[in-house]
């Protein structure tokens, strides 16, 4: 949350909020490019543990072991045997974004002095055309 929004919500001057957040609490802003965006092994394991019961539920809703029976129906519409399978939302392992000078300050995040040190992930160079 931005200092300005906190000040408006609490109805106190921005300078006071800035003093509390930075001096008293010790938080400071860091660029989002230093915030990890790749999932750790624990995060991936957690996704597997969450996905297995969902897969089992899809299989039970289908009445069989084949949860991969999806296809394209008449008119090019996506079809599946059950609504649960269609409504499942999955995520990617990484986030991809391009920091431009206009957007670099937007994704900044607050960090406390005792926050764990973030490590940079190996990423391929961004290509701009």
TrEMBL record:
GO terms for molecular function: nucleic acid binding. It comes from the Eukaryota. PANTHER family: MARINER MOS1 TRANSPOSASE-LIKE PROTEIN. This is Histone-lysine N-methyltransferase SETMAR. It comes from Elysia marginata. The lineage of its organism: Eukaryota, Metazoa, Spiralia, Lophotrochozoa, Mollusca.
């Amino acid at each position: 949350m931005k200092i300005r929004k906190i000040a408006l919500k609490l109805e106190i001057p921005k300078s006071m909020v800035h003093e509390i957040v930075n001096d008293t609490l010790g938080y400071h802003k860091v660029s989002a490019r230093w915030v990890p965006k790749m999932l750790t092994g624990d995060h991936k394991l957690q996704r597997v543990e969450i996905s297995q019961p969902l897969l089992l539920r899809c299989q039970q809703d289908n009445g069989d072991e084949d949860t991969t029976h999806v296809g394209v129906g008449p008119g090019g519409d996506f079809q599946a045997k059950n609504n649960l399978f269609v409504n499942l939302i999955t995520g990617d392992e990484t986030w991809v974004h391009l920091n431009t000078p206009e957007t670099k300050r937007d994704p900044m995040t607050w960090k406390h002095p005792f926050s764990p040190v973030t490590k940079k992930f190996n990423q391929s160079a961004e290509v701009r055309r």
